[in-house]
Amino acid sequence: MFESMTAAADDQRPMDVAGVIGALSSNTRRLRAAEAQEATLVARLAEVSSAVDRERQIPGAEHLHVMDSDGTPTVAEFASLELAAALGLSAQSAAGYIVDVVNLQYRMPRLWRAVQAGEVQVWRA
């Protein structure tokens, strides 16, 4: 669909209102799906990072800690730094993103499912 919009823009052919609205609606659904997938991947990062071997922890090495609230799992402390690098965020923003996603997933499961279904935007949840 994006290619057809680009072609229409390149050809200078006007798109009617219904076509523009349809393209915008389609784009919004794709954006929400991509945001939901990103949040799901952040949840997965928190999950796999919690596999730090507690038996072999040494001073100065990565440790597990509760990111925010009771009822949420521990997360490796460096996970937010890795997320920050991957998404081009500050370490503080990445840590906040992990906290928000983990809280959604474990403390608000209905809202988490709505985000994953694309019914609610990640930033609103």
Task: Describe this protein with a few key phrases.
mainly alpha; 62% helix; two-stranded antiparallel sheet; elongated
Q: How much helix is in the residues?
A: 55-70%
Order of helices and strands: HHEEHHH
Count the helices. How many? 5
User: So what's the overall shape?
Assistant: elongated
In whole angstroms, the N-to-C terminal distance is 29 Å
Descriptive overview:
With 125 residues, this protein is mainly alpha-helical. The chain is 62% helix and 5% strand. The chain is built from five helices and two strands. The chain has helices spanning 2-11, 17-49, 79-87, 91-107, 109-116, and strands at 64-66, 74-76. A two-stranded antiparallel sheet has the order 1-2. Strand 1 (64-66) and strand 2 form a beta hairpin. The longest helix is centred in the first third of the chain and has 33 residues, at 17-49. It is elongated and about 65 Å long. The two termini are 29 Å apart. The relative contact order is 0.12.
Structure, briefly:
With 125 residues, the protein is mostly helical.
Note the topology:
Blueprint: H1 2-11, H2 17-49, E1 64-66, E2 74-76, H3 79-87, H4 91-107, H5 109-116
Antiparallel strand pairs: 1-2
